[in-house]
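Job type: complex structure
Entries:
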Amino acid sequence: MGKGFARAWLSLALALALSGCRQATAPGGASHPAAADAGPVDGDWFTLPIDSDPTTLNFISGTDTYQELVARYVADTLVDEGPALETVPRLALSWEFSGDKKTLTLHLRRGVRWHDGAAFTSRDVVFTYRQVINPANRALNKIDLFRDVVEVSALDESTVRVVYREPTILALAAWSRIPIVAEHLFREGDFASSPVHRAPVGTGAYRFVSWERGRQLVLSANDDYFLGRPHLDRIVLKIIPSRSTQLQALLRGDVDWSPVPPEEWESRSRSADFRRRFRLFRYPVLYLWYIAWNEKSPFFSDSRVRTAMTLSIDRASYLRSVYRGAGTLAASIFHPHQFGYDPDLSPLPFDLERAGRLLDEAGWVRDPRDRVRRKGGREFRFTLLIFQGTPVQEQIAALLQEGLASNGVSVDIRILDFPALLDRLQKRDFEAAISGRLLTSDPDPTLFFHSDHQLGASNYVGYSDPEMDRLLLEGRHAFEPVERGAIYRRVQAILQRDQPYTFLFFPFSTAALSARFREVTLSPASGLLRWYPGLLNWYVPLELQKHPRG
Amino acid sequence: MTLAGYAARRLIAAVPTLIGITLITFLLLEILPGREAALAGPEGGSFLTGEAVARIRATYHLDEPAWRRYLEWLLRLCRWDLGDSILDGRPVSQVIQEAAVPTLVLNVVALAMAFCVSVPVGVGWARRRRAGRGGAGSLVSYLLYAFPNFAAALLLQQFFSVGLGLLPLQGTNDLPPGSPFWATARDLAAHLILPAVCLSYGSLAYLARFTRTNLLEVLTREHLLAARGRGIGETVLAWRHALRNALIPLITLLGLLVPALLGGSVLIETVFSWPGLGRLYFYSLQNRDFPVVLGLTTLTAILTLAGALLADLLCAIADPRFAEEVTR
């Protein structure tokens, strides 16, 4: 304690002497008189809470978030997403497409070594591809990324060629989701059961150290990383399943980062003590809350009815008051940070009167006796499915119920668990459902709106429009940004007109990070922890380090 | 018939019950929707194509008829092989064992705390019969009984851990594995206090009243009136003569609590990051990891049956008349 204090003063004196009494200011505006910053230094740990153990550290078969997070630090992908969702080099330094866009050639970094010292080569890339497409390895969320690949081959030690069945704009982005694994560590046919998946070896900026189930995972800095050693010595992922305990652990200093729920955001951001110790972050995530209207149900086949539904929810007030501003209204499935987003398209307003008129036009008129809307003797009363877990769906469902009640429409709400809801959606066994989903960095929405069963696997509502089908396929193959942008603007206009879903809003993530970390940069689209190189640049000034080196 | 014969008969009768329980569980899991979506993972689930669903069904042998899968499972069970977890591929017995140890430790401590406090309190209440229902202790115990334990958990965490910094906030240990024994034990004890208090305080009222009622009933029996007539003091009377008789229902209760020893509390385990069975059960069900769910149900069923048997045997030992009755 005494020693650390003395060192802090010494470095403060030094810094003052060097900087001419300039008081160092921490990012975010909080001032730290003791934190005179002498530039990036090595040392200290970053401890973060995670909700549960990764199910596996098999980077090929794993599908859960925390496996993926560990893979991002321990392994490398060929390319990655930069702060603006652009493709940035990682293990591949450069790449080019052939004239017909059917062949992708990737040029790999030379001199990269696996954590065990062996050299990384193009053979590892070919091996990784073979593991992904081998059904025995259960790469359930990756195998489809290579659906259009004919062949992956190594031209020489550091060149990989990928041949595609047809040109696709998604070819390169797919490689940002595949962590490369080391061929030399596996014997023929033992990939799925290999012990390597309990102690993975990668080329990444952090080496795997230990995994105590139910307690924590520890990673340590890779001195030989090709971008240079990351500054933080260790990343410790502590398993803390309760979000409220995570926040308490942050206050106690047990962890350095924690999500802050929207309802806590205001009180925390007003507290001077909290702001001195932590930096608050609020950033968009690629996630969308929506209501699906099944077009095969007798109620929602008419786009006027679906539009009336959207007009009946006061989303703006909800976001402002209940959700404390932690989200932006959606006009369509295109996220403001995705390519092709049309800023001129505004979300439908809250307008009960217009909703009523549209319902009248669609033939759902009010019965003068009981004010209930009917059409051909059928009462307008439907079941809305929601899933348990977050309060958002229940609140939105209540808002919709209230808005529609004043228009003579009744809603019955039914709660399921998430897999059960997904099952009902996939079987189109529902009338209306609130759900949410992750979006990908590429905006291609073919999966949601194409009428073909295979192409539109997530077209839960049975949406079908010939112009949309054509535009979606054109968008996939439009390599010119201007052309592709124009296609997607038209797609958004059609979605606005047809309202196959009510696109509710895009939520933000809210989190707090210990103020001792420097060079913390936020990616507008992928937050704090998941973009590349992001975390690899963080450091803690010597006098603030909790776990100094050595 | 001897006591051993009685035990053997009960054991044999338990087999069909056990099979029935596993069959019902299996059937319930079969009709639970969302299996393919859950197996594809949190993100994979949203990208499922018909092709992918077929692939998942084939990978996990879901395309085989249910009766065959159940029979295969049952045959493996006979060799005490519960299969492998779908989520992480490890043997179910290992997954359960890992979670059973923390749950067992926590529950034994919580139960011991509950009994150590509630039996003396119950005896005290019984001796002050006239305090009756209106007593302050009784009121406090009712309030505790009604107070939800997850709320208590948050308050205790905030006060003792974040505020005063006296106790660890969460987890089972801070020291790395392989630390000296006493340091490890002290570390574990510190981590145990808050969750054990949260698990036990609710049952104080119940157990104390249970002790009191039984003791009161026993104290009015004739042999105790006679003992009092001989001038034996109230304290000795209550503790030495009456309590032994009043213990029989308490032992029965304890026997029924044996399966509860391995019944983890999802809420408490979650709030305190305690890697126990409650969380495992919840998580496995949520992710449709059916081998683990089936394994846990089988284990609970076996423990419940064993606990009931154990309680009967203990009662027989404590009260020979009971043994006579069951062996007749």
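Summary: The longest strand of chain A covers residues 501-514. Confidence is low (pLDDT under 50) at residues 1-35 of chain A.
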